[in-house]
Each structure stands twice: as C-alpha cells, then as structure tokens.
C-alpha cells in the first residue's frame, strides 16, 4: 500500500518539502500544522469527505484501542463530520495500523520509545502506519488538525507525512501545590498536551504550601498539611492511566530536602529544627529543611518513594532539590557534627551527600533520580536526570559532564512572555563561544549599569561597545555575571542630541526578551530603560574607564557544545508554577503558546521564524478551543463575571476589544507588585481583569505583522492598520461610561486614558505616513515623552498598544541620520 500510494503521487506532486512549514497546497495554502512534521509531500489533488468517517484500529493494545476510538470519534464528530461506528462500503476509512502489535494489556509510555508515524491521504481514504501505539497517537493528532481546518471545504489535499520528534522528552510541569488543580482540569491539560505532541506530565505534588497526595505510610501529611485539598491514590492512578492512553508519561515530584514546610507541619521530628510549624501560605523560599543526619529521615523517604513507585510506573522520580536555604543546617550542632564526621565542608556538599543516599533508596525501588540544577554533583551516578531552570550555561555544563539534561529556563509559562521568545529558546543553542577579534582600528567602550527590581536584588550588567570611525560594529551585554551575549542592534527611535549617544540593543535573557534603550554620556553617565517583554524598568550606570582590550579578550562567553554534549540534552519542559494561577485561568496561561513550545521540541531547529509561527498559532488557538481547551472560554467568562449586572453582548465585545490593547506585565513583574502590595500569598484573590487577560494580544501581533509588511513595501498594510486603530478609537466613549459605572472595572480607567492617548497618536502618525508627511525630530521627542511617561509607573496591566505606537513612529517618523 505504501509503495503503490507513493507511486500514485509521483505524477501529481506539485511540491516536495522536507521539514518545511511553507507547504503549497492545491489552493496555494500551507496546511496549518503545529508542530511542523519532519517530512511532508503534498499533491495538487484532494480527497473529498462526502461520506461518514470510520476509524479502524489494528495492533493497538485493547485498552488503549477502546479509549482512542471513542476519543477521536467524538472529536471528529465535534468538528461536524459524520462518523460511522463500523466499516462499510459507504464510509470513508481511516485505517490505523501499529506494525509491531502491542500486548493485550496497555503498555505505559517510556523515555526513548519509538514515536515515528506515517500518514497518507489518498483517493480512497486515510492510512496511518506506526511502529508503536504512541506513533499512532501522534498521527491521529496530526489528522485531527487537518480535519479541523478542512471542516468547511470538506477537502483534504492528498499528502504523505513521515514524522518523528527531534527530542524524546517534551514535557509540561503543572503545580498542584500552590493552587490546587482538580482532576477534570488536569485531564483537560493532558488532552491539550496530546494534541500538541507533548509526552511528559511532570506533576508537582509537594512543596512548602501543601502536600497533595494521600499517603498511607505518613497520613498526617495530607491530614494536616493539605487544607483538605489532595488527591486520593485512586485519583492518581486514574490520571496515570488517562495520560498513558494519550501517550503521556507521568513523573511525580517529591521535593526534598528543602521546600519542606508542609512536611514540617505534619512531622516536625524529621526537621533540622524540631518545633511546631504552621502551614505556609506565603510565596518564596523558606528555611525548614529535612535533617540529613537523622536515620528516620531516610526511613520516611523510603516509605514515600515506595508509595510513589506503586502509583507511578514511570522509571523517573523527581526529587526537586532546588532553592535549599542552608540556615537551619548551619545553626544545628547535630548537623555540623555530622558534616565533620563525613568530611563535608559546605552545605552544598551536605546536600550532595544527602542526594546519594536518596539515590540509593530510589534504586531499591527501581527508580531513576531526577532533579533541578542544584542537585548536580559529580558524586551522583550519571543516569541522574538534571532539569535546568538556571539557563543554558548550566544546561551545557551538566550535559558536558555526561549527565542527561532538560531545559526549562526560557519555557516558564507562569511568566507572561511573548510566544516568540519561547519559540526562539533552542535547547542546543549555546550562543557565541568568544567575542569577535578586535581590529587595530576598532575602539572599545564599556559601561556598568544597574536595573532595580521591585523584589529581590537589582540586576547588574555590563555593556561593551566595539566601534570604528564612529560606526558601531558590535554590542555585547552581560547580566548578573552570566555569560556575555552579542546584542541585536535595533533602529534608533529618538533622534540624537548634541553630546549624546543613543542605543537600542536586544538579547534574550533568562527574564525574557530584553531590550536596552539607553542614552550614553561620558560625563553624566548611562540612563534609559530596559524592557523585559512589555515591562519597563529604569536603568542607570556609568562608564567603566578601567576596561581594557585585555578585559575584552577575556570576557566570558558560553562554551560551544560538543556533539556528545548535545546528545545528552534530551529535550525540555514548560513549567507552569501556580502562584498566580488557579483553575479559572489555567488554560489562559497555557494555551495556545504551548503548541509553539511543543514545536520547538518536536520539529527541526531551523524553524524559528516568528512570522510563520504566528501565522499558524492564531488559527491553532481556535483549534484548541474546538477540542475542549478553555483559554478562550475562561477569558470570556472572566470578563462576564467582572461585568456583572452590566453583562451584555455589546459590553462584552467592548471589553474584549479593549483587552486587545492590553497585556499582563511580562517577567515576574506582577509577582513583585503583589509582594509590595502584601498580596503575594496563597489566599490573595486572583479574580481581577488581569487574571483573565491573555498573555499576548493577537490583534497587536497582527498589527506588528502589518507594520513589517508595510516596511517591506506593501502599502496596503497601512490601511489594515488604520482600520484596527479606527475601530478602537470608536470604542473609547462607550468604554469610559462602562468602566465608570462598573465597580470591578473602574480601576482600568487609567489604562483606558493611556490607550486612548496612544491610539490618537498612532492614528495621527499613520495618517501622516499615508500622505508621506514627515515628523520632525522635535515632534518625535515630544511624542515619545508623551507615550513613555505613564509607562514608568509599573502596573500589573501594560497598555501594550503604546509599544506598537512607538514602533509605528520609528517606521513613519523622520529618519534618524
């Protein structure tokens, strides 16, 4: 069948694309698929779906087969297709064949399993072939997207897909501790993961704020330290089976020796300081630590691991191990004596000693250890999996020493960040190994600067400029003693003034897309701002007059990865910590951007074009809604709750259009504002407008794409921009009335005022741009000052349309020479 089908297509193929998102269909349209498949061959012909679909499964395990058939028949029916229960001559067959038939009982997914599949659409039906159940599941996920986007035309282009993932570990961490997540909410995320081809559910079950599973061995954990919110063992087994049927592994996290406040409440005798403890409901890092010198601690760990081994069949068990505050160890005479006995010089040595004991316990229960960066130590066996939240430098160092490693830094979706930032976050990208060699005619200049934050220490940085004959050749940025990165230079927005140099430079840092907009004056120093995503932070600094060419040569850069180092990086995990996440906005925070992260881990690394990604992500958002994810529903329901008695279709539409101009503040800005307000804790309400606001405005994405098209010479794009700006402008009077009379929305009036001002400026710029009327440097400075002054006051909600207005001004304003 495969050979015949391939031969049939040879005469009609119009495009053969390997690893390509730019696939040409019969109607010159690319199929909207996310992740991009490894290979796709497409025909100019199409299969018309004019009969009921019938799904036939051969070779799958019996339990999974029944689940899959019911699941996808319902999904196809939800898309509007007729579905037949059994094969007949009048039905259109979808034949799924697993080449190596599975055992009659369901097999749990494992690391490095074969996930390859082939999907062929021919003149008579759809054929799927896979080596395992799990490849077949991925094929059905791909087919689901194809069918969804063909639901109006009822036509599928004849094609063949040959697909498998680049990385074997493609995960999502959900934090059920800080805010509890119900079983239905978790099931929904698992269904979304399957649609995006994510294959590991990392379940964070224990932390300072709660213990979330029922322990038979140590029952006071859930009785005293869960506030009654925990999963029964039956519920856990159900989730493991449900995930397995979708092809998803479940890895639990049991956090030791730190993040142990909940353990301290239930069993204080296991702690370094034995005293009564209360439930912790604040967010942050806390001092209670298990006592590594007590034998009963290891008896406790052994019993918990034994329970988890029964509940979770996956070979890996995550022990956390991050953010250990050593004060209690340092203050304990017992622990200090234990360290001297075992020749342990530092708290890090003690944690590594503790981890070797925990690893031995895991081995007795046929489990492999997994943990965050901090557990890394050469004393551990090399099958320990390290999950890096500290960044690519840490990831590279760990993998270079032979340890399997995962990247999570850059995939923290609890932070509001642009999807494009996550999409650029390549696990194997190590940055520049060294700075470029200096030429004799090149001069260097270095500046030190400080960026204060609302919580925690300020970020300190160094800016290094390389120039020749007053031309800036290269810019390098370093933040908090991390490796230097070469910055991308952006066009200057504000015209220069006498004696001043202006610089706009961008890197991706651990905080997010980081854009430095700086004024450099050797006499008065460095001033300006740094934008982390959409959040504005002031920055000041001074010239480093001691910086030499030798210092430049010795600047630290991230080392290049060897082939073996790259081999040890097995993929990555998105993480959704739940300080500011509840069931009511869980999906808003996760989808659809998890599809882009999934593509980064599944598809070839060469696909990093954000324009192409967003072209597919926006319709994928509607697909995600159609398969039952709640990101759109939660947004609408949140706004309807806030409108209360003023809820009506007109008012809801007004508020949704206003939301198009707004975004939650990027990075951890919201967390830090909550901390300053005394609301950084488990009981703080999370039911305001910002809690339902999508991470990115799809309309602003569209506006920026249209602006790029206009800059590229497509003049009609400016009309599209004007159309959106006029629509917003028509709303402001009604919005003012609505917000004023609605108590739960009244706090948005300052944002409305700024949005209105920004939009008036944008309309004026666009109109002048249309008739090619120049904007003088003095006008530009005044407009920039008008837009930026309100941005200096940090808020949880950012009027992100002001940043678009600035970009519009940079495009249409008087060119800077």
TrEMBL record:
Domain spans labelled Beta-hexosaminidase eukaryotic type N-terminal: 94-146
Highest taxon in the source lineage: Bacteria
Cellular component GO terms, alphabetical: lysosome; membrane
Residues of the Glycoside hydrolase family 20 catalytic domain: 167-449, 545-604
Family per similarity comment: Belongs to the glycosyl hydrolase 20 family.
GO molecular function, one term: beta-N-acetylhexosaminidase activity
BP terms from Gene Ontology: carbohydrate metabolic process; ganglioside catabolic process; glycosaminoglycan metabolic process
Keywords for the protein's UniProt record, in alphabetical order: Glycoprotein, Glycosidase, Hydrolase, Signal
InterPro entries associated with the record: Beta_hexosaminidase_sua/sub (IPR025705), GH (IPR017853), Glyco_hydro_20_cat (IPR015883), Hex-like_dom2 (IPR029018), HEX_eukaryotic_N (IPR029019)
UniProt xrefs under Pfam families: Glyco_hydro_20 (PF00728), Glycohydro_20b2 (PF14845)
Active site: 323 (proton donor)
Protein known as: Uncharacterized protein
Record-linked SUPFAM superfamilies: (Trans)glycosidases, beta-N-acetylhexosaminidase-like domain
Signal peptide: 1-26
């Amino acid at each position: 069948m495969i050979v015949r089908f391939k031969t049939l297509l040879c005469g009609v193929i119009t495009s053969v694309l390997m690893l390509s998102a730019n696939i040409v269909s019969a109607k010159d349209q690319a199929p909207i698929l996310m992740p991009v498949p490894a290979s796709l061959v497409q025909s100019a012909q199409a299969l018309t779906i004019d009969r009921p679909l019938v799904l036939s499964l051969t070779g799958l395990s019996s339990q999974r087969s029944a689940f899959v058939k019911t699941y996808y028949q319902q999904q196809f029916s939800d898309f509007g297709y007729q579905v037949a229960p059994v094969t007949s001559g009048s039905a259109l067959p979808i034949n799924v064949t697993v080449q190596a038939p599975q055992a009659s009982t369901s097999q749990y997914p494992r690391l490095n399993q074969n996930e390859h599949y082939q999907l062929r659409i021919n003149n008579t039906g759809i054929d799927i072939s896979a080596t395992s159940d799990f490849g077949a599941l991925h094929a059905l996920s791909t087919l689901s997207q194809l069918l969804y986007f063909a639901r109006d035309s009822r036509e599928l282009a004849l094609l063949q897909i040959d697909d498998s993932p680049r990385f074997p570990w493609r995960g999502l961490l959900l934090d059920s501790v800080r805010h509890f997540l119900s079983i239905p909410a978790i099931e929904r995320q698992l269904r979304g993961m399957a649609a995006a081809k994510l294959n590991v559910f990392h379940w964070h079950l224990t932390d300072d704020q709660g213990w979330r599973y029922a322990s038979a061995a140590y029952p006071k954990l859930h009785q005293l330290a869960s506030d009654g919110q925990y999963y029964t063992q039956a519920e856990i087994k159900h989730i493991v089976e449900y995930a397995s049927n979708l092809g998803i592994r479940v890895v639990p996290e049991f956090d030791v020796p730190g993040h142990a406040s909940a353990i301290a409440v239930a069993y204080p005798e296991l702690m370094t300081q034995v005293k009564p403890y209360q439930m912790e409901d604040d967010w942050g890092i806390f001092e209670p630590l298990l006592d590594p010198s007590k034998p009963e601690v290891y008896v406790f760990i052994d019993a918990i691991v034994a329970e988890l081994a029964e509940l979770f069949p996956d070979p890996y068990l995550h022990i956390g191990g991050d953010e250990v505050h050593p004060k209690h160890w340092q203050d304990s005479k017992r622990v200090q004596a234990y360290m001297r006995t075992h020749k342990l010089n530092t708290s890090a040595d003690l944690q590594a000693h503790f981890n070797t004991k925990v690893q031995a316990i895991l081995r007795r229960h046929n489990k492999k250890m997994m943990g965050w960066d901090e557990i890394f130590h050469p004393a551990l066996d090399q099958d320990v999996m390290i999950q890096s939240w500290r960044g690519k430098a840490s990831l590279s160092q760990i993998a270079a020493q032979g340890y399997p490693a995962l990247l999570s830094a850059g995939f923290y979706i609890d932070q509001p960040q642009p999807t494009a930032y996550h999409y650029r976050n390549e696990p194997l990208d190590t940055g520049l190994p060294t700075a470029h060699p200096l030429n004799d005619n090149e001069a260097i200049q270095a500046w030190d600067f400080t960026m204060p934050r609302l919580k925690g220490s300020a970020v300190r940085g160094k800016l290094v400029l390389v120039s020749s004959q007053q031309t800036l050749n290269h810019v390098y940025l370093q933040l908090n003693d991390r490796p230097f990165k070469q910055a991308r230079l952006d066009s200057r927005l504000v015209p220069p003034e006498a004696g001043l140099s202006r610089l706009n430079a961008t890197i991706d840092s651990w905080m997010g897309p980081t854009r430095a907009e700086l004024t450099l004056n050797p006499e008065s120093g460095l001033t300006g701002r740094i934008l982390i995503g959409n959040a504005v932070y002031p920055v000041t600094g001074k010239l480093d007059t001691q910086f030499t060419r030798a210092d430049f040569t010795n600047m630290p850069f991230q080392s290049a990865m060897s082939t073996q180092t790259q081999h040890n990086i097995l993929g990555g995990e998105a993480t959704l910590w739940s300080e500011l996440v509840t069931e009511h906005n869980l999906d808003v925070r996760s989808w659809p951007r998890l599809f882009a992260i999934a593509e980064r881990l599944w598809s070839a690394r060469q696909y990093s074009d954000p324009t192409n990604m967003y072209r597919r992500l926006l319709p994928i958002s509607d697909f995600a809604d159609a398969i039952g994810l709640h990101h759109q529903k939660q947004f609408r329901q949140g706004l309807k709750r806030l409108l209360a008695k003023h809820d009506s279709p007109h008012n809801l539409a007004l508020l949704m259009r206003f939301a198009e101009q707004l975004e939650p503040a990027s990075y951890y800005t919201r967390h830090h504002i909550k901390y300053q307000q005394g609301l950084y804790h488990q009981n703080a309400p999370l039911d305001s407008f910002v809690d339902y606001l999508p991470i990115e405005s799809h309309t602003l994405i569209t506006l920026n794409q249209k602006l790029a098209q206009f800059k590229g010479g497509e003049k009609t794009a400016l009309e599209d921009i004007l159309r959106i700006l006029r629509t917003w402008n028509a709303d402001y009077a009604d919005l003012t009335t609505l917000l004023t009379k609605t108590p739960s929305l009244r706090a948005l009036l300052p944002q409305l005022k700024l949005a209105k001002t920004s939009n008036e400026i944008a309309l004026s710029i666009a109109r002048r741009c249309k008739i090619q009327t120049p904007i003088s440097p003095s006008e530009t400075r005044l407009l920039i000052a008008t837009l930026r002054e309100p941005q200096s006051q940090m808020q949880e909600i950012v009027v992100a349309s002001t940043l678009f207005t600035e970009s519009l001004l940079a495009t249409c304003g008087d060119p800077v020479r």
